[in-house]
């Protein structure tokens, strides 16, 4: 339902997004039946396609040509997909978006090669664009996203980490790719540098807000809504903002510490999830997300008024209020 | 070029790769970037033979080595290993190396090479995955897949810079090395996906052993012929035959042993 609401928000882009969906399917087409199946399995599990949407919307501020925009939108979504399939190996995840992950459906090796294949397809596509600036931004983003994930592993189970560690991590893990989606969309449509910079910052702030909400939903949603067990972040040792805000309660801190890095039964997991839900951590994290959202909206205020800004604003509000 | 100079150049390339991808956490928890000596030897073969070798080509060879390291890291991800830090970081090491090779080629304004390498990685991934497919495949199809896995990246490099005269020799030598490794695995009962599938096709382990040893003998002959075709000098030939593809004449030995 939530995903449908989101899609309604960018209904203006429906024809372009349908075209991108087809392009994505073609992009993962392989002469290997197994790679084909694994990639389509991932693609058809759905997703918000938030990165292509931001590429397209950013393009509205320049000379919008869908054939050019899709050359960026498709690879960015492919890069995101490739990282998801590898993330599921890293996290040993069995379920994503309510579907078995590639590693669960096949095995780790197939998941690794599927990720490599999809990333290579993304690079094959993006190299159709000659602009060195586009490649500078994208290659830097790819590296930073990986560094963010490495830091995430370093920081696992560290209940005493500080807020800066968390923000540094989500910046690299999520915000940069969304920020780059906006900036690249702006660049290939030939907007001026000032507009591109506002769009880049908008993408960054919205990406930060998006990830914080994601981390909140991991505690506040049900298993069914999430398509995976609630509290997965905690189980996997990822110390997210709701936990960092909640830990100042000494009792809760002791409970979290006692349950961290343990093989939790469902009952124990629910207890942890419930404790976080009932703590101040959720509201404090929401306030933090709201602050980023306001910063994102402020960036929009510098852009020329029009449909692009309207849709971006609606998406920003949706992200702030989404349920899962 | 003397043998020790060849060795020294290979080591220096290894160090350059290491420096290019260095990351503190990865250094601590993973085996680090690994590229087989044989692959580096063939990447550098045009340089060893005195062909045109600009700094751009050298940089490009380094990026191919990094792609090798990226794909190798992902080959190391185990099926049943518990989710330990080492395994998680090995996945990310491969991804990071991929980002680094892309950035390095972008910095040297060589987008065309990014495209070539991406296409080669696609073929390699398809061939690697083929060993997990349930469909029956002929031995020839398996050989084809192994050839792509072992040589596609190098062939992209050779084609891109016009070093096609070394293609045949490199293909034969890299296949030789792969089959020699597979034979060692067979003898140690350490089966790869390829060996399992080959065994199924050839029905009995002894036939697999014979098939591999015959392949090695035949490839050795072909390597000798290709060395002559490429007109490699004495030192380079000696280095190749003794350091890269030392031959044991195993088929003859097997026949003698009955």
From TrEMBL, chain A:
Its cofactor is Mg(2+). One of its GO terms (molecular function) is heptaprenyl diphosphate synthase activity. It catalyses: 4 isopentenyl diphosphate + (2E,6E)-farnesyl diphosphate = all-trans-heptaprenyl diphosphate + 4 diphosphate. Keywords: Magnesium, Metal-binding, Transferase. GO terms for biological process: isoprenoid biosynthetic process. Gene3D superfamilies: Farnesyl Diphosphate Synthase (1.10.600.10). Supplies heptaprenyl diphosphate, the precursor for the side chain of the isoprenoid quinone menaquinone-7 (MQ-7). Heterodimer of component I and II. This is Heptaprenyl diphosphate synthase component 2. It comes from Planococcus donghaensis MPA1U2.
From TrEMBL, chain B:
GO terms for biological process: menaquinone biosynthetic process. InterPro entries: HEPPP_synth_su1 (IPR009920). It comes from the Bacteria. This is Heptaprenyl diphosphate synthasecomponent I (Spore germination protein C1).
């Amino acid at each position: 339902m939530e995903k449908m609401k989101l899609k309604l928000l960018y209904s203006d882009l429906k024809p372009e997004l349908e075209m991108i969906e087809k392009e994505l399917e073609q992009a993962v087409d392989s002469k290997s039946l197994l790679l084909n199946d694994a990639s389509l399995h991932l693609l058809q599990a759905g997703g918000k396609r938030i990165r292509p949407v931001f590429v397209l919307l950013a393009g509205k501020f320049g000379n919008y040509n869908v054939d050019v925009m899709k050359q960026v939108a498709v690879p960015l979504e492919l890069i995101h997909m490739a990282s998801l399939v590898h993330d599921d190996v890293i996290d040993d995840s069995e379920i994503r978006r309510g579907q078995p992950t590639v590693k669960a459906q096949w095995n780790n090796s197939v998941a690794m090669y599927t990720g490599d294949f999809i990333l290579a397809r993304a690079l094959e596509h993006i190299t159709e664009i000659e602009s060195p600036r586009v490649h500078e931004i994208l290659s830097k983003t790819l590296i930073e996203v990986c560094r963010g994930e490495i830091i995430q592993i370093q920081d696992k189970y560290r209940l005493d980490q500080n807020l800066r560690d968390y923000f540094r991590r989500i910046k690299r893990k999520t915000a940069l790719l969304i920020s780059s989606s906006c900036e690249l969309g702006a660049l290939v449509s030939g907007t001026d540098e000032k507009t591109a910079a506002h769009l880049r910052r908008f993408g960054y702030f919205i990406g930060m807000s998006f990830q914080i909400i994601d981390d909140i939903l991991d505690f506040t949603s049900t298993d069914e809504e999430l398509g995976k067990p609630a509290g997965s972040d905690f189980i996997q040792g990822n110390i997210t903002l709701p936990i960092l805000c909640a830990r100042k309660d000494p009792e809760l801190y002791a409970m979290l510490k006692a349950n961290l890095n343990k093989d939790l039964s469902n009952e124990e997991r629910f207890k942890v999830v419930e404790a976080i839900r009932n703590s101040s951590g959720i509201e404090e994290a929401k306030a933090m997300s709201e602050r980023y959202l306001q910063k994102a909206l402020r960036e929009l205020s510098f852009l020329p008024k029009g449909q692009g800004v309207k849709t971006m604003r609606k998406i920003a509000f949706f992200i702030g209020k989404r349920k899962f | 070029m003397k043998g020790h100079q060849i060795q020294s150049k290979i080591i220096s390339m290894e160090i350059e790769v290491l420096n290019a991808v260095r990351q503190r956490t990865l250094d601590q928890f993973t085996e680090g970037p690994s590229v087989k000596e044989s692959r580096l030897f063939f990447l550098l073969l045009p340089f060893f033979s005195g062909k045109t070798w600009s700094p751009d080509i050298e940089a490009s060879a380094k990026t191919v080595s990094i792609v090798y390291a990226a794909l190798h890291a992902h080959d190391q991800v185990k099926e049943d290993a518990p989710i330990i830090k080492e395994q998680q970081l090995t996945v990310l090491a491969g991804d990071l190396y991929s980002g680094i090779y892309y950035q390095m080629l972008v910095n040297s304004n060589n987008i065309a090479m990014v495209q070539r390498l991406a296409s080669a990685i696609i073929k390699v991934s398809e061939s690697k995955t083929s060993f997990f497919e349930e469909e029956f495949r002929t031995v020839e199809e398996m050989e084809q897949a192994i050839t792509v896995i072992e040589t596609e990246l190098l062939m992209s490099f050779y084609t891109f810079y016009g070093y096609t005269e070394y293609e045949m020799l490199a293909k034969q030598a890299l296949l030789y090395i792969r089959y020699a490794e597979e034979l060692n695995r067979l003898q140690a009962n350490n089966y790869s996906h390829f060996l399992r599938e080959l065994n199924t096709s050839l029905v009995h382990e002894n036939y697999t052993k014979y098939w591999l040893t015959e392949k090695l003998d035949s490839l050795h002959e072909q390597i000798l012929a290709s060395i002559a075709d490429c007109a490699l000098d004495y030192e380079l030939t000696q280095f190749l035959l003794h350091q890269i593809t030392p031959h044991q004449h195993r088929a003859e030995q097997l026949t003698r042993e009955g």
